[in-house]
Structures
1.
Amino acid sequence: MSHTVKKTLKSDRPGSELQGSIVTKEMVMRAIETRVGSEEFYELEPLEVLEVFVDDTAENFPLTSEGEKDYSYTGGVLGRFIYSEQNKSKPECKWFKPINPNINMTPVRGEIVIGMEYLGQWYYTHTLNCFGSPNSNIRKNLSSYRNPPNDDEPGEYFIKSGDKYPNLGYTRRLRPKEGELLIEGRFNNSIRLGSNQIEETTFEESPNIVISVGHLINGDSDNSQKYDKQKEEPYNDGTREKPIYEDIDKDGSSIYLTTNEELKFTPAVESEIDGAFGPFDGKNILLDSDRIIFNTKNNGSVAMMSSHNIALSAVNEVVIETPASKLGSVDAEEPQVLGQTLFDKLDFLITQLGLVAAIPTPTGPSGPLSSSPNWTAVTTAMADIKSALSTKHLIDS
């Protein structure tokens, strides 16, 4: 049934004037009236969600008294109280705003929330955890038992995870640790505000934040990694599905902020640069996904500073596309050498020298340079220059 919350408006206890005096009928009646007027009762009752207003394209989007669309109801619902409005027709049902203007879990059709009235306005809060599923907790027709169950979808485009659409997978709850704050979305996404205090002997501060999307979308956790197998046979409503932990390698995309723990993941490249190889313990920020993009606009910049080393490693190529570059400092002035160009020009120079027929000397013209006994050493030196050119690390002219 519905619940009530009692709020006392006066600090003086009603009826205190009767103490130590002769009681008359008028005094008793006045005490009763004072008692009744000193309290307000706020009804809290389960509310079945009939419609959800996520944008103003809904046919029955709430309107102001002037007939304009009332955007304060964005994220609001049309609902019917389960007990006090049983079988009430949909056109007679009320609109409800989300009670918190900053944080709101938008329900879907058929879910049960808590409805209430404050200051002449109707609000809703808290989706009831009917099945323990973060994806959906739909229980249709609780507010209209006499009517046959309807076939309305939970939303215009919202799709409940389950057997009907197996490609969506199943949304699983996260396994909590003591004292943590978990924020879980409907779509295998979450924020964990927690700590690495997981054993009795762990007394050091170790706060962490884990942001994860696509829980185990890349497969199950491997027994040789941090966790045992986590995926089990899924069950329709989620009431018997085992909660899971995030897994860096198996989740879709992750951000880890740690202070006093070891991050366990598989690096794409085993770097040999100090600071770029494991163990990855202590304070770390890890971004992990199939692609990581840094982008600026409005003439902004990207700055990367390190108190130790910066490692750039790739399985295939590292390509830096820029019209100009400097190495060492912003004051660098020495031009970089284009290896093939330098070789070709030296080769041309040596060839032209070898074509010289004779060089004037005080004793008469000498023979061609190519006939010199030392000319072989020159051609050998040119071959050595050729072998010094890299075939893997290239630069534009």
Note: Residues 325-397 form one domain.
2.
Amino acid sequence: MEDPQAVPSAPPSVAAANGLADNVAGALAYITLLPAILFLILEQYNKRPFIRFHAFQCVGLFIMWVALSFFFVIPILGWIVGGIGLVLVAVCWIVAILKAYQGQRWKVPVIGNYAEKFAEQ
């Protein structure tokens, strides 16, 4: 009998005709800002909507990370708000990496809507 609570395995990472598989490239886009930018520039990746979505979402998360970092200039209240914000961004970043590797298009609140809009262009 199969375990009803078993977690489904990740889709196989079959390489596309040219380059990485979409789920692998989508997950790699989140590692740092550099792969996300490369995936938006390189022609073999920037035509694939799944990769474009995750690359744009990574850029949005990075911008949010930088913006929240400025809160640390403000004593006490800024440290609290900035710290909580950075923890939330880090959690979203990790979930986004896992969902991208599983082949899912998971949208981070607010940022995901903009990433989806830019990915469709």
Note: Residues 22-120 form one domain.
3.
Amino acid sequence: MLFGAVGAVGTAGHYLTLILLVEALHQDPTLSSLFGAIIGAVINYVLNYKYTFKSNKPHHVAASQFMVIAALGAGINTLLMFIFIRQLQLYYLLAQVLTTGIVLAWNFVLNKFWTFSGK
């Protein structure tokens, strides 16, 4: 439950960045989503380390592991956004909703069992 709440805050940061870049600054949705994913990853790391998983791993270890997973997740995010928008011609926000669900599952499993596994 807490992971979901933390994820919602990170996702809000991601979507706000995406929408601002696309709508206000007329940037490419795929690239804007990548920048949003970076913002969301920073928010998620801080909140998950402290509240969700209550990890006692040193930050240099947990942050390194988290960033590997976040980078892979950002890559998956960018690839899916490209496919959904460019190949399937989906509206960018619909594409992001679909992508978010896939990347959320990826991030949760790997962070739970690798990044924040030490209590």
Note: The chain has a mean pLDDT of 89.
4.
Amino acid sequence: MICTMERSTDTILGYTVSGDMTKADYQTLVPAVSAAIDAQGSVSVLFDLTAFRWEKVSAWSDDLNFGKQFKDKIDKMAIVGDKKWEHQLTKLAQSYYANEAKFFETDDDAWNWLAG
């Protein structure tokens, strides 16, 4: 499940991902990111994965399409988590989802980096 964080702005979009990410989650995420990019030209994104478990197989193509559609329009992507594999995911994020990606252990540090 994906939820928009209250701290989101026009240019910095924050999302909390919990449990399993599904195809329906991308049907929420993609239009929101697309609208922000249409309005602003580019955005930065924060994904808090501390309660994330995994992504459903049925959502994998949506995940790949997200990267294909938005990679050049996402300036920075912050990944917040508490597991080693989430830290490794940041390397993938920089290659496929954003111009720059960085891992954080706290939301506050991630927001500060995105705003800076």
Note: The mean pLDDT is 91.
